[in-house]
Each structure stands twice: as structure tokens, then as C-alpha cells.
Write a structure and sequence with these properties.
Bound molecules: L-rhamnitol, zinc ion
Shape: globular
Radius of gyration: 22 Å
CATH superfamily: Divalent-metal-dependent TIM barrel enzymes
Number of helices: 14
Order of helices and strands: HHEHEHEHEEHEEHEHEEEHEHHHHH
Number of domains: 1
Helix content: 40-55%
InterPro entries: L-rhamnose_isomerase (IPR050337), Rhamnose_isomerase (IPR009308), Xyl_isomerase-like_sf (IPR036237)
GO molecular function: L-rhamnose isomerase activity; manganese ion binding
EC number: 5.3.1.14
Main location: cytoplasm
Structural class: alpha/beta
Strand content: 5-15%
Pfam family, one: RhaA
Number of strands: 12
Length: about 425
């Protein structure tokens, strides 16, 4: 271990201990937090089931070379990324990432089509999360999947969601870690609808069918993800926030909040303390909205730090599943994983290095001066020294050293694809 990093860490510890913060303990707590890393950053949400570009609901821009073309390549890229992210985490799969030579449609998927992923996850000590893929498919028609008015189309998507839960249950049982399955449907209208309620009624009834089978929550829990608008659904989205939140609360499902799925100035950090009071689990899709787009690489911005602070201050780390959700095809995809994941962990660390009790007391006593002064001073406390130490302790590259490794991997592996 480098002595410079150790010395800086010791100095930082002294400073934080002035606030009564035990930094060693903070790092222990941090090492137990798992981030669910989304596999789809590795190949621009392409998947391996169908050889077609993304269509309907979401889109990816950029053509940086080296996207993974096979499950093997994707796993190899993930391993590279994971080797630069401190801690033990989970990988989040979509149904289209099935690893099989069979020609199998979404409604016919079975656990065996994901066996190689499970073997790999076991070897790597990773958990797995899952998502049905309700887009980019010929049965995604007129902008609708599971709430399509045609019962045949609707049935196809119900079936797909049902088999997805069985795959998730298999993940959970095999890996002895709960799999979180997230249900997101792009369903909606480009233009102003006549009937806003009927599609919601169809979605509600369809979801009831999807979730009819009881699955041991030790193996799988289901989340529903809302969205305000999407590409092609600018005027109306069936699975709005009110719809998904109400459905989840009534049916004991996990509420998925995607940071990019709300009005441009609406933040998910402000929602956590409210939802957490109503005995619900939450899944986060940590993402970064930029104007009308929702999926930029997660950076250390104010909202990321506010999300982390809310989780830490309110002791929500057991109740909230932290997942990442972004896709940028204009930069090195492995770097994108590393930047976003490291930022998420770094934001949590920074939040843990806060004298919350003291600040809470100031707030209760209406001493808003102290609250503001300390919060601002804390911003220049040496959390970076603690982060560097944590990286070194976890045997991952310190600071930007990871970039050299990624560049080398790019030259040796990605550019040959
Ligand atoms: C899309 C949703 C959804 C997807 C993934 C790929 O707006 O955020 O979570 O990004 O399922
Ligand atoms: Zn999302």
C-alpha cells in the first residue's frame, strides 16, 4: 500500500473524527453496499436474441467502436469494468441478453437460457437482477406492449413477463441473493389521447395476471418503473408515476424510481423519505437526465449526492436497491460503467462522511446558520483521500489510473472487434 495514500488517509481520519465520525467503520459499511450494474451499457441495449437495432421506447446514440457482440464479450467487458470498481456488486440483465443458440422468442424463455450467466455470476461472486424486455420487438405495436388493446398482443407480453419472473426466481435461488425484477413498459401515445384510463386499466389487469403466481421473496421481488414521457410517447405514458406508485403500494411491489423519468426539475432524492414511510421497498435507476433525455452517464452532480445523502441519513440502504441505468454509445462503454459506478459509490462515501446527528440537532434548534455553514465547509473536507484509500484497500486502481487500463483494453480487445 502506498504510504502517501495511507498518510493522507490518516490525516483525513483525524479531521473527520473532529466531528465524531469513525472513518474505518464508514468504509466497512460502504463495502457492504451493492450496486446493481446494468449490463446494457456494454452493447447499447442491443441484446443477443434478435439481430435488430433498438426500436420503440428508448434509443441510444453514438457509434464508439467495440460494443460487445456476444455474451462472452459482454461478460469479458463486465469483468474488466468490475475489476476497477471497489466492492462486490450485482449485474442487471435484460431478457434479450439470453445466452442461447436456440431461436427462442421472449414468451418462451426459460431459466436454462441463462445458465451461463448464473455460472459466471457464481464464479465472480456477483448477484443478478432481471428485466423483461418489453420493447424492440415486432409485437411492440403502435407504441404499446402489455397494455395493447389487441388481446393477443397483450397475452404475448403477459407471458413474457411471467417467464421473466421464473428466470429471476432461478437467479435468486441459485445465487442465494434476492433478484430484483423490474417491469418497465414504454406504452404510450405520441399525441394527446382520447382515453387515458382504458390503457391503464388494461395494464393494471395485465400486471395482476403477471404477478398472480406467488414467488418466494427471498428469491425474487418485483418492481414497477414509471416514466413521464419517452421518445414516441411524449404526450402520454400508461405507466405514469401515480399509476406505478399506487400499483406497487397496493400490491406489495417495489417502486422503481428512475432519476430521468420526471419533470426536468423534479428530483427523486426528495421522494425517498416520503415513500420509505409507507413500508415499501424502492429500486433506484440512477441515471442522469439532460433536458429531454434521461440516460446520460452518472456524474458527481448535486442530485447524485442528494440521493446518496437521503439513503444514508435515513438509513435506507437496507430498503433501497441501487441500480444504474444509462447508456452512452459515444464513449468507451467500459469507461462509462466505471465512471458511473465509481461515482455512485463515491457519493455514498461522501454522504457517510457527514456529521448528520449534529446537523439534525442544529436544524431542530432552528440554527440554520450552523446547518448551512457546516454543510458548505464539509464540501472541502478531504473525502478524496478516504476514497483513494478505499480503492487501494479494495485492490482497484486509485484515481484515474483505471483509464490507462481501459485504454489498453480498448487497443488490445475492443478495437479488434
Ligand atoms: C427506460 C427505462 C428502463 C430502461 C432499461 C433498459 O426509459 O429507464 O429502465 O432504461 O430497461
Ligand atoms: Zn430506468
Amino acid at each position: 500500500m502506498s504510504t502517501a495514500i495511507q498518510n493522507q488517509y490518516q490525516a483525513a481520519k483525524v479531521l473527520y473524527s473532529g466531528f465524531g465520525i469513525d472513518v474505518d467503520r464508514v468504509l466497512e459499511t460502504l463495502s457492504r453496499v451493492k450496486i446493481s450494474i446494468h449490463c446494457w451499457q456494454g452493447d447499447d441495449v442491443h441484446g443477443f436474441l434478435r439481430n435488430e437495432a433498438l426500436s420503440g421506447g428508448i434509443s441510444v446514440t453514438g457509434n464508439y467502436p467495440g460494443a460487445a457482440r456476444t455474451p462472452q464479450e459482454l461478460r469479458c467487458d463486465l469483468e474488466k469494468a468490475l475489476s476497477m470498481i471497489p466492492g462486490k456488486h450485482k449485474v442487471n440483465l435484460h431478457a434479450i441478453y439470453a445466452d442461447t443458440k436456440e431461436q427462442v422468442d421472449l414468451d418462451q424463455l426459460e431459466p436454462r437460457h441463462f445458465e451461463t450467466w448464473v455460472e459466471w455470476a457464481k464464479k465472480q461472486g456477483l448477484g443478478l437482477d432481471f428485466n423483461p424486455t418489453c420493447f424492440s420487438h415486432p409485437k411492440f405495436q403502435d407504441g404499446f406492449s402489455i397494455s395493447h388493446p389487441n388481446p393477443e398482443i397483450q397475452e404475448f407480453w403477459i407471458k413474457h413477463c411471467k417467464v421473466s419472473r421464473k428466470i429471476a426466481e432461478y437467479f435468486g435461488r441459485e445465487l442465494q441473493q434476492t433478484c430484483v425484477t423490474n417491469f418497465w413498459f414504454p406504452d404510450g401515445f405520441k399525441d394527446v389521447p382520447i382515453d387515458r384510463m382504458a390503457p391503464r386499466k388494461r395494464m393494471k389487469e395485465a400486471l395482476d395476471k403477471v404477478f398472480a403466481e406467488k414467488i418466494d421473496p427471498q428469491f425474487n421481488v418485483d418492481a414497477v418503473e414509471s416514466k413521464l414521457f419517452g421518445i414516441g410517447s411524449e404526450s402520454y405514458v400508461v405507466g405514469s408515476h401515480e399509476f406505478c406508485m399506487s400499483y406497487a403500494l397496493k400490491n406489495n411491489k417495489v417502486i422503481c424510481l428512475d432519476a430521468g423519468h420526471f419533470h426536468p426539475t423534479e428530483t427523486i432524492s426528495n421522494k425517498l423519505s416520503a415513500l420509505a414511510l409507507f413500508d415499501t421497498q424502492i429500486l433506484l435507476h440512477v441515471s442522469r437526465p439532460v433536458r429531454w433525455d434521461s440516460d446520460h452517464v452518472v456524474i458527481m452532480d448535486d442530485e447524485l449526492q442528494e440521493i446518496a445523502k437521503e439513503l444514508v441519513r435515513n438509513q435506507l440502504l437496507d430498503k433501497v436497491h441501487i441500480g444504474l441505468d444509462y447508456f452512452d454509445a459515444s464513449i468507451n462503454r467500459i469507461a462509462a460503467w466505471i465512471i458511473g459506478s465509481r461515482n455512485m459509490i463515491k457519493a455514498l462515501l461522501r454522504a457517510m462522511l457527514e456529521p448528520t446527528d449534529m446537523l439534525r440537532k442544529a436544524e431542530l434548534g432552528a440554527d440554520f446558520t450552523t446547518r448551512l455553514a457546516i454543510l458548505e465547509e464539509l464540501k472541502s473536507y478531504p473525502f478524496g483521500a478516504v476514497w483513494d484509500y478505499y480503492c487501494q484497500q479494495n485492490q482497484v486502481p486509485v484515481r484515474e489510473a483505471w483509464l490507462t487500463e481501459v485504454k489498453q483494453y480498448e487497443a488490445e480487445v475492443l478495437q479488434k472487434r
